[in-house]
Fold these 4 entries.
Entry 1:
Amino acid sequence: MAQEDVFKKVVSHCKEYGFVFPSSDIYDGLGAVYDYGQNGVELKNNIKQYWWQSMVLMHENIVGIDSAIFMHPTIWKASGHVDAFNDPLIDNLDSKKRYRADVLIEDQLAKYDEKIEKEVAKARKRFGESFDEEKYRETSPRVQEELQKREALHERFSKAMNDSNLEELRQIIIDEEIVCPISGTRNWTEVRQFNLMFKTEMGSTAEGAFTVYLRPETAQGIFVNYLNVQKTGRMKIPFGIAQIGKAFRNEIVARQFIFRMREFEQMEMQFFIKPGTELDWFDTWRKTRMAWHQNLGFGAENYRFHDHDKLAHYANAATDIEFRMPFGFKEVEGIHSRTNFDLSQHEAYSGKSIKYFDPELKESYVPYVIETSIGVDRMFLSVMCHSYCEEQLENGETRVVLKLPAALAPVKLAVMPLVKKDGLPEEARKIIDDLKFHFNCQYDEKDSIGKRYRRQDAVGTPYCATVDYDTLNDGCVTLRYRDTMQQERVKISDLRGIIEDNVTITSLLKKLK
Ligand code: GAP
């Protein structure tokens, strides 16, 4: 199946099976805002639990907080968001459509990549088994020509972004002959900066009201609570503070479903360390976070690091963990070495000392920070895209199955009476009443057993247990496994032992090195 089709199918599957709905659906939706349905919320909660427990439960020196969405407006001045949390936007005068200038140029870079990959694929076909890809890439004049154009554009683009040179961004768009995808013309406006923070007012009277922002990241809630947590928790450096919560960004171009949203959720952890140790800790967290992702079993080849060559002025190392989405490798998580920038800024703007007295060094310093920041919704999307399968069955039918890691699946066990009479429903309910304390079970009696299996496959339920007439005599059920579709007769009293170890978050955590 073409990757574009996979993505479309995932989007409609999410809606059809209660994972993700457009927000305000009966009012035709609200741009780039989504609601999680009955299955989506379970999967999302499981992702959050996997992250939270891997941070807070697995590390003695990491604690969690839950800070408010509204924060003192000066915080966003100190963090740089008021002045610099901008996207460069450009309008096409013919289509009246608005674009992010940087995204138009990034798409152009991707076009060069595509051309190169096409050349390589053609050569691979032509030369067959004797094809030496590395050598071809190095020696093919066409590949080299495209590569040089790409590199030149990349360099020019990075410089323009770093210098916030809006005129140069526009000139790049003109020079590269980038056209509006809707009108096909090059009738562009100037490039302007657009701040991504949502503003609202706090207070009831016009004179007393002041502007507050919906937080664009959860991290600042951690920075401004650093002292509270360090003191009340008697935390010694190195230590971390973790938080999961909503963030809001007025994205100009919101696309690709839940990949880029205006209201989304982040899982962030700030790790406070001694200055000078940051590059070692950066390396540790880089590896730790990649291991967390790969532990889900989606295949190491579907992840890669994207190290930033151009760094923000306060960062001295940064990388993204990218996952192979149906629309290419995309950032799911960022890991940044942020020096002492944020704490120092808050110290300066608040006038409060945010120094740590190091009992070993017998000196005070503003701690350095390594940040790990992952989007819950992007993680959700990567899990859905990887798990969605269409399988051809021996009888010619196709089954749609979500091969979710069992620990993330919304429902772990569906219990189904063969018929809705003769005491079978009561027996099925008894099983659920017993097991529901240990994992999420669902009772399902409607339609044929085959249809019920398909329904559970489509939401990723790893186990189905069917109660039949024999169950009433032998105390056994037919247990059916989602991925293999194999069935076996097992004792009701053994169900918990068979299932529980494979479906809990603990089972995932135990596999983490
Ligand atoms: N505190 C650092 C920070 O916020 P970021 O790279 O802007 O860094 C971190 O965001 C993560 O948040 C991203 O890797 C992505 O997973 C998620 N994210 C950012 N913007 C998003 C959006 N508009 N919609 C969904 N997820 C988003």
Entry 2:
Amino acid sequence: MRYEVNDPVRLTDDGRAILAIDQTLLPNRVAYIRLETPKEMFTALKRFQVRGAPCIGIFAAYAMFLQAKVFAGECQDKETFYQMMHTFAKYLSTARPTAVNLPWALKRMERTAANNMRRSFETIIEALRKEAENIHEQNIETCFTIANYGLVLVNDGDGILTHCNAGALATSRYGTALGPLILGAEKGMKFRAYVDETRPRLQGSRLTAYELTNAGVDTTLICDSMASLVMSQGKVNACFVGADRVAKNGDTANEIGTAGLAILAQHYHIPFYVFCPTSTIDVTCDDGSKIVIEERDPDEIKNEFFRSPVAPEKAKCYNPAIDITDAGLITAIITEQGINYPPYDFN
Ligand code: MRU
């Protein structure tokens, strides 16, 4: 596979570690981290150095391949090997509880190992490498297809409001929700992007604004609280967001603030579109009420990205990372298989 500089995760050339862009340092510094041990891999997810649902899935697949090589050298029999793989997968999956691409990729890798159990360790490892590369390559193709579908929904010159980051950094290459904007720019289209800064982790200002300006898209950063005014001024023709997990009925878990945006969009009669690969759809989950909401360190709200605390020490903070957008607020869900309109019933 041909790796590109802007792949947020990939294997190192020596094939012994994952090389990832440290997303916590953007937009000020583009630096790579090398991740080799289970602890390093877990921590990279926990610290959001690697983030975005599909990207986490690709990362997990490479992590399983790398660990499989270590386990194969440590144990004699396949049963122990499989157990070690399973334990590692469980460990990694606890780093981010909401994004379904993480358990999805881990299961796919475990299945690959199980399907090859009768073969030599060498063959199993090779099958795991291929599967991880397939997951990565499929995501690249998927994002491109999604970007093309997205372009059908908007007109040249439209204002598009987006939240958090669903670009190449969160996936690979075009991204999901940012795909139509980036592909559109390549085709000479002139969209106007409004980017929510996305408190408290600022993925919008740090990552989305970085990706869109680099792609030559007309980009205006706004605070999350400004979305209503910007919509009321007629500047927004559509909202484009990604997803961490979509339930069977279309209820969608995504970065905190997404649901509020969907409610505003309905008020102003602005179409609200969710973009995701089918791997983000959790067909075992009937509706949004069953989705586990990830909670982050409350300290993020007061301290992260500020020189000194922006609230008194005694003030408590509640910091849920994800909210659920009711399917009834979503105009369409766009996957690599097409544009899905309500009522949603994914199988
Ligand atoms: O920074 P994260 O991992 O919490 O990002 C969440 C999102 O904003 C996304 O929209 C999501 O993971 C989909 S990314 C294509």
Entry 3:
Amino acid sequence: MISNRALHQWISEMEQLCRPDQIVWIDGSEEQKKELEREAIATGEMIGMDQKKWPDCIYHRTAVNDVARTEQLTYICTSKKEDAGPTNNWMEPAEGYRRAGEYFRGAMEGRTMYVIPFSMGPPGSPFSKIGIELTDSIYVVLNMLIMTHSGRKILEQLGDSDDFTRGLHSKADLDPERRLILHFPEDNTIWSVGSGYGGNVLLGKKCLSLRLASWFGRNEGWLAEHMLIMGIEDPEGRVDYIAAAFPSACGKTNLAMLVPPEHFRKQGYKVWTVGDDIAWIRAGEDGRLWAINPETGFFGVVPGTNSRSNPNALASIRRNTIFTNVLLTGNGDIWWEDGEGDPPATGIAWDGRPWKPGLTDEAGKPIPGAHPNSRFTVPVVQCPTISAEWDNPRGVPLSAIVLGGRRSRLAPLVYETFSWRHGVYTGATMASEITAAQYGKQGKVRRDPMAMLPFCGYNMADYFDHWLEFGKDLENPPKVFHVNWFKKDHAGHYIWPGFGDNLRVLNWIVKRTREEAGTVRTPIGFVPAKGEIDLNGLEISAEQIAELFAVDPGDWQKELDDHRRFFEQFGERLPRGIAEEHRAMQERLALERAGSR
Ligand code: GTP
Ligand code: SPV
Ligand code: MN
């Protein structure tokens, strides 16, 4: 099909290792896609859906032990262990190739190897990176066709260059004991074996666009981040773009597709979606930050998606969508928890077992029909609020960076950091409660710097340093904010309504970037002055507002002690700027506590 020698040589080596029956090149055509869907349905790899109700949609169920990324089986394979750092699993490259090579050996016998040429970022943009994924999964091919620029046009773009990410994936036998997700940043290579789940196998996504890209970004002077990108248009038609880092399943897709509350809609506020998961950020010649969404699709959490929480997502996924691990009914319909309408009388749960409403486990807990991490895959252009700038090769200029997590306690609804350096400190100490998108004890608070704990492809201490240095070179570094939509009252209920009402907070943030809104100084940053967040049309009491913005110096002292313990693992490598910010915060808290005594 093409003359690229480096590409052909690599493919033939991988072919010898995996021994597929045949090789098929993905050209990006609609005919090939339809043919693959038919084949996947015929073999049972995927399941057809009611085409009247769900036009061009298709269903997939993963293995029951394969429903989220497996961070414990994900490795950074660098020559030096320190380059991966204390927060990553590390394996020596030779050991990685040897161990995974054993699982790959002959794994594609009786199967087809698909060759997927893809580009993260618009082809030809200075931001963009080309990859080739080899896979034995039609599910992966169909997802990559939605999530990336892919097919013949990318091969043409690549030409004879050997500058492409070499991605090898095989489901092999889907055995978690023989599963590895390996990254070789020094070789621009990714090997993933033994899984069929999204973030483990769509190699353009977390593996390339975050783990490898963060490594490239450090060497080349840019940032690859786990961030949504959205535009907020005010009644005068000015659009401010913000990028926001929240950990997995903490609200990026929802915020990126936000519908303004009525009070704002009437005034003419609009929200535009640019991306919901990943941002690549560069400094522009104008001294501002510019960001692109390298993806072309959304791989979003299904449960909780309904016409109140996220009508734009719901509108996006009515056609031409892949559904993974939701509840399937006998007649090709689907259902999920906190979606639209009543559950069906009976169905087949995400794990393939018969399901009916009211089922409980031994502990009396409801058994869900859809897995809490069930996902939709849909082209971004199907979103009613997709920004006209979404695939602009130059990206969009950022007015603010927003950080956040899921904290039932402690973190106030919103605060503004004092400086870029304090913003980096705030990102470095981000924490969130574990969700269904990760394996681990759900609800437990873990530190997740910049929402990148599972995605930073190098030593996290060097990552902090890269952020600090990156900001020093900026003429106009954007302000950095922290938000928390998830604070709970003593009865365990969310205090803040969230979703569309989050625009009230974003509006304050945008005003702050123009120095147009008042603040109150606290030891952790500036919180909105009374009356500065527009609460018009919202039923919320003064006590609730007070609780949302409370900054308790005693609780924050405990938090700060935990920051210190977290930083200890980086030893000497922790940048001085971070240690200095820690000390400064210690002093502000001590002053506050002395003052309030
Ligand atoms: P990944 O795709 O895993 O990176 O997740 P994400 O960050 O895009 O999270 P998503 O928007 O899919 O939200 C995950 C869960 O958080 C869903 O169950 C949402 O209903 C819930 N959620 C999102 N925004 C809010 C909010 O403002 N308030 C509350 N209470 N819940 C929210
Ligand atoms: C996440 O877990 O942050 C996701 C889903 O966006 S996955 O692509 O599986 O990583
Ligand atoms: Mn994500």
Entry 4:
Amino acid sequence: MSLPKVSVIGAGQVGAMVAEHIAIRELADIYLFDVVDGVAKGKSLDMMEAMPHWGSDSFMEGYTVGPNGENYENLKNSEVVVITAGLARKPGMSRDDLLYKNVDIIKSAAENIKKYSPDATILVVTNPMDIMTYATYRIISPKKHKIMGMGGTLDSGRFRTFVAKELGVSVEDVVAFVIGGHGDDMVPFVRYCTVGGIPITELLPKEKIDAIVTRTRGGGGEIVSYLKTGSAYYAPGVSVTVMVESILKDKKRVVTSPVLLDGELGKYYGADGLFVGVPIKIGKSGVEQIYKMSFNEDERKLWDVTVGHVKESVDKVNAYLHL
Ligand code: APR
């Protein structure tokens, strides 16, 4: 059976979840890469042995990558590469320490993608996601339409979930999305949130909507507070899979995710040269369209705050990478 090739760098919680979902849906053959010896190999073998029960012929293989790029040649001919490799924040580690450590990890992944699979579409999951997507782009540039982050898709799913639960309706009938950075200042876009076409502003009082917005913004942290070690991976895994499926099948899904805002759009959004989450269309060619949203005064303020935070971190990364 001939299936497209998807590679996943980082065979941790999110990476394994992505691999499993793609395999269950028989979307691709999946190749996992991880720095911890045997992890990618063991997990891919275990998952592949589950496939007879799902009726899927997706092939899976795992490789341990070394400090000098050992085994990365197996990335070749990937249609999509998902980067989930990264470290979680440990006690005593500042946010900036984490930022630089993950930039180093992204750098080695991106350089090897560029070397072995230069035509792949790249989906970045590693946090801080907007910044890691930017770093990937700066290392691989100029393939801007082939590089995107995943955050907005995940955050929009959380927003839809909370709206549906509050109103007691099916999640299927809630259209809602989140733009901006994938952090505490992300912008759940209330004015365009509808339930069966009805704006939520006509269905819920302001206090309830505000509470949903706050919970959406803190959605990742809420899960970390329960898990204590580790962060969300079920919803992130599915969010990545939905995007990979749209690319492989050329479905032209419209999702929100961090993409490069430059040129006229960059100026309009006040985010020239940054990766920030906006609605996009994704298909075979990667990012096929970036939509221009109109903001009222309050929305523009929220947008400017989130863009400002992305820019602060990007400036740090530029200094760190001597860009
Ligand atoms: N090359 C390849 N893999 C690496 C490297 C590297 N240089 N450095 C770390 N890894 C691997 C780890 O060994 C681990 O298996 O990345 C994996 C990360 O997995 P987890 O720690 O389980 O983290 P996960 O929950 O999957 O989250 C991954 O996504 O949501 C974000 O904030 C999250 O940045 C994190 C990423």
